């Protein structure tokens, strides 16, 4: 009998390994993520999802296929939010205004003349208020990946309006929420809720004669063609969320959830920077197509109307003391 040498041992081990049956690790199936975007490929609302898709492919190759449907083809914000809850759309962006019918506490981010700057808003959503709002949205089947800043909302009109009294009796398109309705009613306007995707036609046909919106979206929807006067009221800091359907989210493994959460946080910063750039380009486009910018007069009067809204909505957002705390953050 030959002695067992190291060479014999290695040969035997190799033969055993080669003769053993191959057991493959199960591959994770690719998941399609249908994303709704209100605007075109060149706008931040769509570019953010191209960014998220690219980063997801880098970190989890082959795990996701992002089907990004642009130009509002899947409906306005409320329609998309309903689809997110049902699971037929897996991801989108939304203003907090559009989600406040499910989570009234979100209206604290929509209070007029509350936020002094983008940095002020950023501190609030990164703190306890933001964490609480994320939890409330999760209870309604909306999983928040991050908060975003669409920029300030400004007054858009067919003829110049620089003082609050100029809105008396004017029909104004609003986000269909009690806060936005209450704000413009306080100035004597007649609010009418119209989805953003239908707003151009409503303004063109006289269903409404004014609205408010961010500069980026003003150009994105070519609204300078129907409401050429933009008064820089900056009355509301238009905050929003990157959000996912709970059914989609719950179907992911913990690693995929962690990766998408990290990418969403990065994407929120990317989006905010894009908005700043896009506002400059948007106003240049508006100017070239007949848009005119006006400065508001009598800001004390504008703010006085806003303070009434604070008082009216204090019970829904946690009380006046909480509003003052956010104001001083």
TrEMBL record:
It comes from the Bacteria. Residues 1-29 form the signal peptide. Pfam families: DctP. InterPro entries: DctP_fam, TAT_signal, TRAP_DctP_sf. The keyword Endoplasmic reticulum does not apply. CDD domains: PBP2_TRAP_Siap_TeaA_like. The keyword Signal applies. Keywords: Receptor, Signal, Transport. Belongs to the bacterial solute-binding protein 7 family. This is Tripartite ATP-independent transporter DctP family solute receptor. It comes from Martelella mangrovi.
């Amino acid at each position: 009998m030959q002695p067992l040498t190291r060479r014999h041992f290695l040969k035997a081990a190799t033969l055993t390994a080669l003769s053993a049956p191959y057991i493959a690790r199960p591959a994770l199936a690719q998941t399609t993520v249908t994303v709704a975007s209100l605007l075109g490929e060149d706008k931040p609302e769509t570019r953010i999802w191209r960014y998220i898709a690219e980063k997801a492919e880098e970190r989890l190759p082959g795990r996701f296929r992002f089907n990004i449907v642009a130009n509002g083809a899947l409906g306005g914000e409320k329609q998309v939010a309903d689809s997110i809850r049902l699971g037929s759309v897996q991801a989108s962006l939304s203003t907090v205004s559009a989600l406040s019918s499910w989570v009234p506490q979100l209206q604290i981010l929509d209070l007029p003349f509350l936020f002094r700057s983008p940095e002020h808003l950023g501190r609030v959503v990164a703190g306890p208020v933001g964490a609480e709002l994320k939890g409330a949205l999760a209870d309604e089947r909306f999983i928040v990946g991050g908060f975003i800043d669409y920029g300030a909302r400004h007054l858009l009109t067919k003829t110049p309006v620089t003082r609050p009294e100029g809105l008396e009796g004017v029909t104004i398109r609003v986000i269909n929420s009690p806060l936005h309705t209450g704000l413009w009613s306080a100035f004597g306007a007649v609010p009418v809720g119209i989805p953003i995707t239908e707003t151009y036609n409503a303004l063109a046909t006289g269903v409404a004669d004014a609205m408010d919106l961010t500069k980026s979206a003003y150009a994105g929807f070519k609204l300078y063609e129907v409401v050429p006067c933009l008064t820089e009221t900056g009355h509301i800091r238009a905050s929003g969320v990157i959000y996912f359907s709970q059914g989609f989210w719950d179907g992911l493994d913990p690693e995929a959830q962690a990766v998408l959460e990290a990418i969403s946080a990065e994407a929120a910063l990317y989006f905010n920077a894009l908005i700043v750039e896009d506002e400059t380009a948007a106003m240049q486009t508006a100017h070239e197509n007949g848009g005119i910018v006006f400065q508001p007069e009598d800001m004390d009067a504008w703010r006085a109307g806003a303070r009434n809204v604070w008082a009216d909505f204090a019970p829904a957002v946690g009380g006046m003391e909480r509003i003052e705390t956010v104001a001083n953050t």
